[in-house]
Design brief:
The chain has about 425 residues and is an alpha/beta fold. It has 14 helices and 18 strands.
Length: about 425
């Protein structure tokens, strides 16, 4: 396996070098010439915060590993809701643009920085990355890299770290999930939602309440105990089944759902906010929608928490890794998760595979909550040919638009590309 990986990496580098030399030779004499041996790679670049038209696939200089880092030839990248928030700039202290988005990937180790131990060139790995994952090559510290089981595909590996570590740590590290407890999870059909459902099934007699768009119910009904439409009054539905409420609420929505979640907690129950997808809107300039959603968050009164014996918590895996230096703790969790995977108790759910050039369509799909499981950017996948929008038939998306008309499309006027006849065309992704 190591020999194969090294040989593949060498061939790829030779190809990139060849292309780099060709481009340099074809440059005009008055232009800035690039050295023929400059190594370049394809990457998704966010030029500025805003709409989908701020994303482009561009050539960038290939990074080289620093001390303690691994250089990874990327095979697949995970697409998460946080990536939409990054694109719109709706995060705390956003980095400067232009930038390469993405926080997780899978691939093959291509080079080792000084002092790196435990890995060899050619190893199949998955990794967390502090941005820059959506590229053909990325470098990241070894503490954020994990070897992939032999029977796990690269697309599954790219769908594994963020979703399962987040789900596991919320359930077991923060909320202390035990036998006989009950859990409410929003967006039950998404990557984290499906990971939560699978992990809950490893503990006896755990009841899982889930909310999801109605068109997803048939596909995910067996993964949760009780499933509700995301637009229904789920508070009354839960109380009808369990008058006391639930032990754990996992909220990735925020806004008005915060107060609802707290009202459903049993005594000694735990509410965990781990995302705020309601902050992402269909508007390029989303400040007012952003502010409105925050105003809907019920003010938490500490005295009320004390009187009702309730716990409110927050969880951010990226902050835990990259700001609070808890990579060692995450490594312990990853070991436990890989044992569960090898025991065939959990398995990442991949919704669809997209080429890097299809990142806009992929983002639209996750924004519209059209996915069941994880969306993956497949670095080696060729873009699907464009087809006229009126001929674009996609069962899940068309069903969704017919049954979930409350969702706002993100591709508004300011999102148009105005690039020839591509304006009214869509790509048909490969759905697994």
């Amino acid at each position: 396996m190591a020999k194969e990986g090294a040989q593949r990496a060498e061939e790829t580098e030779q190809m990139i070098e060849k292309e780099g030399g060709k481009e340099a030779a074809e440059s005009s004499a008055g232009g800035s010439l690039r050295a023929a041996d400059t190594k370049e790679m394809r990457a998704v670049v966010l030029s500025a915060f805003g709409g989908l038209n701020k994303l482009r696939v561009s050539k960038k200089a290939m990074p080289e590993p620093q001390e303690g880092e691994l250089k990874i030839r990327v095979k697949a990248c995970g697409l998460n809701f946080i990536d939409l928030m990054v694109r719109q700039g709706n995060i705390d202290n956003p980095p400067k643009t232009p930038l390469v988005p993405g926080f997780e990937c899978s691939g093959i180790v291509e080079a080792l920085g000084d002092s790196v131990k435990g890995f060899e060139i050619g190893d199949r790995i998955m990794a967390f990355v502090n941005y820059n994952a959506w590229a053909e090559v990325v470098c990241t510290p070894a503490e954020f890299v994990y070897k992939i089981p032999d029977d796990m595909s690269f697309s599954e590996a790219a769908a594994f770290p963020m979703n399962f570590v987040t789900a596991y740590m919320m359930l077991f590290e923060v909320a202390n999930l035990r036998e006989g407890m009950s859990v409410l999870v929003h967006s039950a059909g998404g990557g984290v939602g499906q990971a939560v459902a699978q992990l809950c099934s490893t503990i006896p007699n755990v009841t899982v309440f889930g909310t999801a768009s109605s068109f997803k119910h048939e596909a995910i009904k067996d993964s949760v105990t009780h499933l509700f439409d995301r637009n229904a009054d789920y508070v009354q539905e839960v109380k009808r089944i369990s008058a006391e409420g639930v032990d754990i609420v996992l909220d990735c929505l925020c806004g008005e759902n915060t107060g609802k979640g707290l009202s459903l907690l049993k005594p000694l129950g735990t509410y965990i906010l781990y995302g705020s997808s309601n902050m992402v809107t269909g508007e390029t300039k989303s400040f007012f929608s952003f502010a409105k959603s925050w105003w809907q968050v019920e003010k938490v009164n500490p005295i009320k928490l004390y009187e009702e014996n309730k716990v409110i918590a927050g969880f951010s895996l990226l902050n835990l890794l990259f700001k609070q230096n808890r990579g060692g703790l995450v490594k312990v969790v990853m070991d436990k998760l890989l044992n569960l995977y090898n025991s065939k108790k959990i398995k990442p759910v991949v919704d669809s595979l997209w080429a890097l050039e299809e990142v806009k369509e992929a983002m639209q799909r996750i924004h519209d909550r059209g996915n069941i499981g994880k969306l993956i950017l497949d670095v080696e996948k060729a873009p699907t040919p464009l087809v006229s929008a009126k001929h674009y038939i996609h069962g899940v998306q068309s069903h969704k638009m017919a049954n979930d008309s409350t969702e706002t499309s993100e591709a508004g006027e300011e999102e148009e590309d105005h690039e020839g006849d591509n304006e009214n065309k869509e790509r048909m992704p490969f759905i697994q």
